[in-house]
Input
Amino acid sequence: MTSARESAVLELLELLRRGAPVEQFARPAANARTAGVGPAEQALMEEATRVALDIRRTLDQHRRREAELTALFDTAGDLAALRDLDAVLRAIVHRARMLLGTDVAYMTLNDPVAGDTFMRVTDGSVSATFQQLRLGMGEGLGGLVAQTARPYASSDYRTDDRFRHTDTIDNGVREEGLRGILGVPLRVGTRVIGVLYAADRAVRDFAPDAVALLSSLADHAAVAIDGARLLEETRTALVELGVATETARAQSEAMRLAADTHDRLTRLVLRGGDVADVAREVAALLGGSLVVHDADGAELARVGTKPAGASAGAWAGPPAHALAASRSGGRAVAVDGIWVCAVLAGPELLGSITLGGRGDDLPDTERRLFERAGLVTALLLLLRRSIAHAEDRVRGELLGDLLAPAAPGLVRDTGSRTIRARKLGVDLTRPHALVVLHCDAALRSRLAAEAARHARARDGLAGLHEGRVILLAPTDSPGPLARSLAAELGQVLGTPVTAGSAGPAAGPEGLPGVYAEALRCLEALHALGHTGDGAGLPDLGFLGVLLGDGADLGAYVDRVLGPVIAYDTQRGTELVRTLEAYFAHGSSLARTKDALHVHVNTVVQRLDRVRQILGEDWNTPAGALEIQLALRIRRVAVARPPRPAAGPPASDSSYPTSR
Output
């Protein structure tokens, strides 16, 4: 059986090496079944097949991203050369069709004289009527994009009533056979000069990545058209004025600088440069101080200025109103001598670049260079995000393996998990604390992403396990870690985040137990009304010690309150509820009767019945402490079982109440 398993694994690896079709990956497991392997071996083969398919999908994603980036870099090279505008636009439209895998791609340009937009370039089109279409502003999908300067997509344009349909447009679209259409604006600054489209002859939903990619290609096309316009204006000025030698030289120098900058930045990226390398290059070209931030305001790179707070002249990040203006206009803006450029992927904000030391007067060519640096930075951030997502998935899978208990009769393989963790920069031989995080279900995916970011910063692991967000970090202080995470993540998400922690675990073999203790802590926090806080079981006092030590809480509650609970059950009374209200209101009969909405005599009679059941010393300091502790433990214990598979403990309003 062992040789069959090894043969199947080797065959899977060979299929991965050859990039074989997906359907061939089922063959090794089928061969193993034919060889008569046992159920356990067969399960291992099926798991190996699943992992191999996951790896193949990841490789396909990387290849697709590489192809997209290569196309964008090729487009940048075409733009730098700019020898033939028609050739550049045809190449951009063709690349849009190939990268998005659509049947047709085309581009329309605005006609300011006629007040409409006309077909400029098509790729994959077969209809002469369609190739000669003109769209009025606001008409159809393309007219709306040209009018609003926003991308629009329709999975089936023919039946989509969001757009103003006209007979001319509908006849052209019907003759071409188009159904799914995506259009993004071609913008030069705040001015829309046309629309770039990708369309299918079948119904299709366009993902955000497709919108971002087409928007990047549209940005290149707009720069190409704008560059051609500048060249034409330069030639016209030379012919009309005859004395524009200096102007021609300046324009030539500007184009040379733009082309040189594009080449330098492109080579830098292709050599594997990061955001800091781009920042140094741009700061050297523009002769100023430059800082790059991500979308959350975290600093990614800083050149030519000290960190914020180091001096009176240091600055931390771009003003919010300047970033908003740059994002909406698609251009760099100046505020109080600081230039700000939003880093965008289509409509998505990825970060910002802030340029200082140049004042409000930045020549147009240098301004475009600055904006072009934002485009290159956006490509790098998109690539980094893709890599981070893949790494987070691997970290999450490892975390799930670490927390899963060993199967009955089997010994946990902690050695291989330790090696896997070390490859990710995680040293499991150090003491680690584990935190279980909880927030509203609608924000769980964002919570998982933020937890992954915090885990990477702490050389730890994070991911989803049993529907819960888990973070594992090297520390011997689980309580402070939980409190800081609850505060920071709650502020980022704008909603309470509860964090129950446990540990430290000295090795991977202790993590399942630490996970169970952290769950008990989280449940106790919810049951005690501490939603939005973070703590470890020791932070919960005596109750936490009991939960952590695994004491027989049921026996303790039965010893102290058992007769009263039995009395309520048999007679339908509310003695336990009365005790809870009595101690919750400082042993005040008046406030207790108000809380229960009964007469004070009823409260007195119920407490007298408690005295008869529990004895004369029930309300002495020692007796009262025992009863209050039992009530609190019973409240927590009632809240714990059964636990939902992927949610928090039951809320206070759902606790059953004794009568």
